[in-house]
């Protein structure tokens, strides 16, 4: 009887053990699996390009070099800009001379010459006046003909007109240019100054500087190559503005919101653990993957771009490094 009870106890224990083993195995088999999602580190990039065409004369920074905002990066040789600068400076010099002439008036020698011409014209007028008066008396006495009198009168009128014209020339030499001429000269100088400022602004564009702190990620042309207006010459990556980008299928996106904390690992940094905060979630229109689901039927599973920014600087992190996110599959 005792032996039967002992065998029964062993059977019950074995049954309980089998049930426990099956339950534990079922738990591990049926529990949600961790889905590994691979992302990538990205950083803000700045394109360095010029406003003027020319040839690369010199690089002051190389790929991989750290630069500060305002550092000189590239020198561009542009003969066209040098020619335009010389032309603009010559035009400004001419405009300034024209303005000075308008404001300073005629030279003293010119004023003296105009005065002498006026005096000469007055003398001629006086001579012709006396001749006219004499001819007028003789004409009244019927001594000279009407034709002769008319000729002398015409000569007197011409001498008077010459005297008045000489007086006007003298007055203009003394007074200088009219106000309208002065205003026009000032406008010419202002326009010339604007042209000089414009070409000088282009001259500044032949010396390209760094728009921000960062690392030179790429240099596109070589020294001596011709670059066009707006052509990219360098790319600078701002390592102080780094984020992580993930492409996540919408069936794995459940529960994720902006502001959520993500626990990430970076394989290139010996699986360094990083905490990042989600700040951007948006669908990628050109990145849809079709996937059939048994529970809900068949539908197009869209892919969303998720961006997260590290909560603290990560030493050694570079754009392009892989980032691993693990999420439990529902």
Characterization of this structure:
Helix content is 44%, strand content 31%. The longest helix is centred in the middle third of the chain and has 33 residues. Helix 2 packs antiparallel against helix 5 and helix 3 runs antiparallel to helix 4. It has 330 residues and is α+β, with helices and mostly antiparallel strands. It has a domain of 119 residues.
Say how many strands there are: 14
What fraction strand? Answer: 25-35%
Helix content range of the residues, please? Answer: 40-55%
For the sheet with most strands, the description reads: 6 strands, antiparallel, barrel
C-alpha termini separation: 53 Å
Radius of gyration: 48 Å
Notable traits:
alpha+beta; 6-stranded antiparallel beta barrel; 330 residues; 4-stranded antiparallel sheet
Topology:
Blueprint: H1 2-30, E1 34-49, E2 54-59, E3 66-67, E4 72-77, H2 79-104, H3 108-140, H4 146-175, H5 179-204, E5 207-209, E6 214-219, E7 226-227, E8 232-249, E9 261-266, E10 272-283, E11 289-293, E12 297-301, E13 303-310, E14 322-328
Antiparallel strand pairs: 1-8, 1-14, 2-4, 2-7, 3-6, 4-5, 6-8, 8-13, 9-10, 9-14, 10-13, 11-12
Helix pairs in contact: 2-5, 3-4
